[in-house]
Amino acid sequence: MSQTFFISDHHFGHKLIIDFENRPFVDTEEMNASMIAKWNQVVNKEDTVFHLGDFSFLNKEKTQAIVSQLNGYKILILGNHDRGRSRTWWLDAGFDEVSAYPIIYKNFFFLSHEPMYMNKQMPYVNVHGHIHGQKYEGLHYYNVSVEQLDYSPVSFEQIRDAVVVNEEQ
Description:
Layout: E1 4-7, H1 15-20, H2 28-42, E2 48-51, H3 60-69, E3 73-77, H4 87-92, E4 97-99, E5 103-105, E6 109-111, E7 125-128, E8 141-143, E9 154-155, H5 156-168
Parallel strand pairs: 1-2, 2-3, 3-4, 6-7, 7-8
Antiparallel strand pairs: 1-9, 5-6
């Protein structure tokens, strides 16, 4: 049975992010290889992955080489560092779908790159990235930046169950 996963902010090829976010890598080559391996440890070929932005700082050829190594049907929601390139650029790089706007998934998740304002009456959980090692407080936010997830995609069920458990406390 196929699963759906979420992750964001890989910043493939971005040398400075290693220091900015205290990532445990010596250089971008080690970082890229480790993040590809962690992705493929949890994602199977028949799974779907929503990448919530800031995927790669590399050129199209190198980005394509990374995307082609990653398991799953890959959907990209453009992040602030992705928006300088067109939807077509990202599709050519190997993503199966690309959205410039947030997506509502299963009437439960509001998928966006940046955290969106969610008041207490909102029926959604905002699954987002962008803020890397930081976390928004409250039941309506779930940060899927790689730093929050040990660089591995997280499943729909894991997020849903975490939110439901927190709601009951």
